[in-house]
Amino acid sequence: MTQIQIGTSDVYTTRLGLGTNKVGGTSRAGVDQEQSGREVVRTALDSGIQLLDTAYMYGQGRSEAVIGEVLKDYDRSKVVIATKAAHDPKHDMQPNNDPAFLTQSVDDALTRLQTDYIDIFYIHFPDATTPKAEAVGALAKLKQAGKIRAIGVSNFSLAQIKEANVDGDIDVVEDHYSLIHRAPEGEEMAYLKAHHISFVPYFPLASGLLTGKYGAADRARFARFVEGAQFDAALQGVAVLRDVAAAHGASVTQTALAWYLAAPGVDVMIPGARNAEQVRGIVGTLDVQLTAAEFQAIDQAFKQF
Ligand SMILES: NC(=O)c1ccc[n+]([C@@H]2O[C@H](COP(=O)([O-])OP(=O)(O)OC[C@H]3O[C@@H](n4cnc5c(N)ncnc54)[C@H](OP(=O)(O)O)[C@@H]3O)[C@@H](O)[C@H]2O)c1
Question: What residue ranges carry the coiled-coil annotation (predicted)?
């Protein structure tokens, strides 16, 4: 798999990564995700995926811990660990960007991951009070100390990203972006490109809606993404994805992911998987090369978002 540089850091990774919010802990449906999570991570690494996107919030440390256990069987230098923190368990999980809290969070993550460095560390959410430059300043010190290799922010508005990047320390931004949530296109992506900051979208499959396996009966399940006529428009867009997928003998999931890999503002993809079979499906994306006309057809089908 081809590699790209994260911002101006010395971190290089494959463009296809793995989202691990379904690794470790217990799902909302009460399913223990530890065993399947180990298999998901192993399958990804065995398939050549390098970047694992995790966070303290995923199972309150369990996703990181499962990754740490699995990594004992792999060459650490070939894996890119991206993790995040901000939710403060002592304050009802409210975001905390205080330098002392972030510094402690990095140390705690290192312990759970059983490693001595984190490749990419993101501030998971902004808080309301800490000056952004102070929060990022703490991460810059951790980078100098070798505990983290690249600095990221997630869920920051463009104004907050600019404030955080006042000293040019931000390497990567992770934000909600998909074919049905295209807000970062335009000003945000232009700023990131101009400042050599990588972009990693989350929810690329809109939690499953863009895989083609859900239909009209699943309206309520995706209400947090699209409602009313927007849901119908999303399904119409999925129908276009299905046509393009058929032309390639590919799945709808692979076709959607192939679109992002061809999209100008996207650097690394981190689709989430519930089991090893889904990981194998995701990896198959690399065999799908969209033509310019197919890219445009998909782009147009979701233009209204
Ligand atoms: N920074 C942040 O604040 C933030 C927020 C959210 C997520 N994230 C990150 O982004 C990652 C991706 O988000 P996500 O996992 O929530 O959503 P997603 O990637 O949009 O969708 C994942 C879902 O797509 C379906 N899927 C995946 N591969 C499939 C395949 N091959 N065939 C059929 N269906 C497939 C599964 O749905 P089913 O479960 O229905 O089978 C899976 O749960 C997360 O894992 C996490 O690392 C970050």
Answer: none
